[in-house]
């Protein structure tokens, strides 16, 4: 194929990064995104290890560092609001070796600027059907538009429509780790100033933080699915479920829950991973969470998306447009890296959400003791070393 036309489903971090690199390699990418516009806001994300190299090769690293969240302190509190442990923001977030924390919306905006002039993006639309032919993939869109592309890449997340159309139903590939996550903007009634505060209760954790340049705050709720009285269906039921799970908790949790239940941007989903034997089928391939979601508990979703996009575009270019060879090489390079980061998820979530009151008491006592020890930041840095090893578990080629 010469100047292959590639349809990318999803204008998230993975899709936009892929569009940038495909364009650089002489491909003609088109991005289709069901949201009406580029998604603003969002939670804070970490760019680590190999993803820093990708950002540097895109000429974005300096801008990313300028837009860092600036979170200076992380604190764990008990049910009375008493500080159990406190440490610097990077140690609290497991960041080492130049890792950068940035709001997803800020990163998204930086990436999109790199593609705005060279890539067509169809907002407010989505793929509804795929039909592979000897020469390409016929694609139907929800808008009624139909077109043929040389390749189709699904970068449309955990609940990927592209994956469902090309590989089969979601339940075959998505593994629920047994936890739920909810995130939203909330009023900064604690007057947090570039701080993060975490509350831990049996079966549930709640945290709030503020970042540089923002007046408000964000809240995250993590809890075991065992805390639910049946899986909620629809936004209203999810809001009621969130209120029920956290009813009776201490500290400022009731006030945050009240704000979350009323928040228009409340996000709710399972903590899940995606596992497939292959990431490509014919002329269709998967990228990012659609291919190998490691779960938010891994802290590596954004880095995996950026690195995967770089490798996929590079291997397709190196294969001279031969999609079979390019897809195979992409998977050989990326699968060990993705699997190393997926292994972080199940272990991390068990440390983030304690199952019993006894576990909570033991964790609080341990953190309280650690908080009094000299060199506690070095001890914590050693504890998060596995994250750095996973983040650097790939050697990036220069394509």
From TrEMBL:
<dbReference type="GO" id="GO:0071949">
    <property type="term" value="F:FAD binding"/>
</dbReference>
<feature type="domain" description="FAD-binding">
    <location>
        <begin position="5"/>
        <end position="164"/>
    </location>
</feature>
<dbReference type="InterPro" id="IPR002938">
    <property type="entry name" value="FAD-bd"/>
</dbReference>
<protein>
    <submittedName>
        <fullName>FAD-dependent oxidoreductase</fullName>
    </submittedName>
</protein>
<dbReference type="InterPro" id="IPR051704">
    <property type="entry name" value="FAD_aromatic-hydroxylase"/>
</dbReference>
<dbReference type="Pfam" id="PF01494">
    <property type="entry name" value="FAD_binding_3"/>
</dbReference>
<dbReference type="InterPro" id="IPR036188">
    <property type="entry name" value="FAD/NAD-bd_sf"/>
</dbReference>
<feature type="domain" description="FAD-binding">
    <location>
        <begin position="273"/>
        <end position="341"/>
    </location>
</feature>
């Amino acid at each position: 194929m010469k100047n292959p036309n590639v349809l990318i489903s999803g204008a998230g971090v993975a899709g936009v990064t892929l569009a940038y690199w495909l364009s650089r390699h002489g491909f003609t990418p088109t991005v289709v995104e069901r949201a009406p516009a580029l998604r603003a806001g969002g939670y804070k994300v970490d760019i680590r290890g190999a993803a820093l190299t990708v950002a540097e090769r895109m000429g974005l690293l300096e801008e990313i560092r300028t837009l860092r969240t600036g979170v200076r302190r992380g604190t764990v509190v008990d049910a009375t609001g008493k500080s159990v442990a406190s440490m610097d923001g990077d140690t609290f977030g497991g960041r080492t070796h130049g890792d950068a924390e940035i709001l997803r919306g800020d990163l998204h905006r930086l990436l999109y600027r790199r593609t705005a002039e060279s890539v067509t993006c169809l907002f407010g639309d989505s793929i509804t059907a795929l039909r592979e032919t000897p020469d390409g993939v016929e694609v139907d869109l929800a808008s009624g538009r139909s077109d043929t592309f040389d390749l189709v890449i699904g970068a449309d997340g955990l609940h990927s429509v592209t994956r469902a159309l090309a590989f089969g139903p979601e339940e075959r590939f998505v593994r629920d780790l047994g936890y739920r996550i909810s995130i939203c903007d909330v009023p900064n009634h604690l007057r947090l100033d570039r701080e993060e505060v975490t509350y831990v209760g049996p079966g549930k954790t709640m945290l709030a933080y503020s970042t540089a340049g923002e007046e408000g705050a964000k809240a995250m709720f993590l809890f075991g699915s065992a805390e639910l009285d049946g899986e909620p269906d629809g936004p209203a039921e999810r809001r009621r479920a969130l209120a029920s799970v956290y009813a009776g908790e201490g500290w400022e949790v009731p006030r945050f829950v009240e704000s979350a239940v009323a928040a228009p941007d409340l996000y709710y989903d399972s903590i899940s991973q995606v596992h497939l034997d292959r990431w490509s089928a014919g002329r269709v391939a998967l990228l990012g969470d659609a291919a190998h979601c490691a779960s938010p508990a891994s802290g590596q979703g954004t880095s995996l998306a950026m690195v995967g996009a770089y490798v996929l575009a590079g291997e397709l270019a190196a294969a001279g447009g031969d999609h079979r060879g390019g897809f195979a090489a992409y998977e050989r390079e990326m699968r060990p890296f993705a699997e190393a980061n997926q292994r972080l998820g199940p272990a991390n979530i068990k440390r983030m959400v304690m199952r019993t009151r006894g576990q909570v008491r033991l964790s609080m006592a341990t953190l309280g003791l650690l908080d009094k020890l000299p060199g506690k930041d070095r001890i914590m840095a050693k504890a998060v070393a596995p994250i750095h090893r996973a983040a650097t578990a790939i050697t990036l080629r220069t394509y």
